[in-house]
Amino acid sequence: MFKKFRLKNYRTHTDTTLELKDITLIIGSNNSGKSNLLSGLNYFSMLVSKAFPGSEKSKMLGKHNFFPHKHSLSDSNTPISFYCEWERDNNNTAYELQIYCLNERSGDIGCKEKIVISSNGSEKKITHGHSEKSQKMLLRTKLETEALTYDEKKLTDTFFRSLAFLYYYHFQPAFLKGQAFPVIQGKPAEKKNFSELFVNSKKSLNIANEIGREGAHFQELVKYVKEYDEVSYGRFLGYLKRFVKSFNGIIIDKGVTKWQFDMGTSEFPYFEPDKVSDGLIKAGAVALLCAMKIPPAMIMIEELENGINQKNLSEFLSWLTHTSENGIRTQFILTSHSPSVIREFSDRLDAVYNIHLRQRDYKSIATNLNDAIKPLVNMGTIEEEGVLERDGKEVIQVKPYELTELFYSGILGEI
């Protein structure tokens, strides 16, 4: 489970730290930097994935890995960096990656990597690119020849696999229902036939990658899983039935995916995706990701409330909590600017961060809501509902309507 992320000098995030829970909520207005944050986490995850020792992809860094991503007002001497802490069975891993400019004229880019492995009471630190300059991400390759114990090797392998399995989505109901497709180089993307691509292929299907940022290939993936992956389909069905008890399964009718429901009669009607509620379709996409044999370690979803009825948001968030299995199976980072979502976190303010863009220097400032609300409680601006201890910290609980009032008064956006 990831415990902490830190981004430095990535776009508007000059120094942003998140302490992570099973579900972490990011709130803020448009253009506050919410998308930049998720983009940064996704970017460094992709770099780590490319650095897999067995990968044929180049581990060499170029100017495209630095200049488009740094804060627009920072100079070329300031590196962009990513840091994270991760825990599994009381063993810990801390990893840091810095990317910096070696030569602005030639565009040569260097990197520094460091990992600290804490396992069974012992600690080891391994670095790459610190004593000698390096333009390649080779720490993972270097670890293969380090004198690590079996437990340490297993821990680092699991950690890097988890870090490479961060996925960032902005699910749109029209895409999820197969009514719209993203435009690539001026042309709409075509439907994919996953049975042709993978049934007789040695390649494995990565649903988290193939589904697409907006979810355009969701219906075709559901069809593939229904027909060729009984175990994953069973998990998918189980997850969704927790959310909508009347959901009965997927029917393939003349090659088309249809959604079947138990309406309390002797018949079980089924409907084309465009007749299914936006909320259920979005839950279906999350359920399919979580049903994978190895689900994403972190699922990041922008504007969670899009397409979900406000009355169903509470149920949806509760369902996400059960689906994450306390962060053991997967974790979520959600973004929102809806008071209906914010109020659902009134008893877990430590899992909420407000982001606003400071106009004078175009820096995104992230503030933990639990820390920010303490002074408001002390001043009597809002009433404390209760206090509990979580992860060694006091967490304030407030009434949901108090958060809604703070939102509409504009105070929440200024915290």
Explained architecture:
The chain has helices spanning 34-50, 139-143, 150-164, 173-176, 194-198, 207-210, 218-228, 230-243, 278-290, 310-324, 339-342, 369-378, 400-409, 411-414, and strands at 2-8, 16-19, 23-27, 80-88, 91-103, 108-119, 122-128, 166-169, 183-184, 187-188, 247-253, 256-261, 270-271, 298-301, 331-336, 352-358, 363-368, 384-390, 393-398. It is built from 14 helices and 19 strands. The chain has 415 residues and is an alpha+beta fold. Helices cover 32% and strands 28% of the residues. Strand 6 (108-119) and strand 7 form a beta hairpin. The relative contact order is 0.14. Helix 8 (230-243) crosses helix 9 (278-290) and helix 9 runs parallel beside helix 10. It has a six-stranded antiparallel β-sheet with strand order 2-1-4-5-6-7. The longest helix has 17 residues, at 34-50. This is AAA ATPase domain-containing protein. It comes from Desulfonema magnum. Residues 23-342 form the ATPase AAA-type core domain.
Task: Assign an overall shape.
Answer: globular
Largest pleated sheet: 6 strands, antiparallel
Mean pLDDT value: 92
Number of strands: 19
* Beta strand %: 25-35%
Low-confidence stretches: none
Give the strand line-up of the largest sheet.
2-1-4-5-6-7
The radius of gyration over CA amounts to: 23 Å
Estimated structural class: alpha+beta
Helix content: 25-40%
Distance between the termini: 28 Å
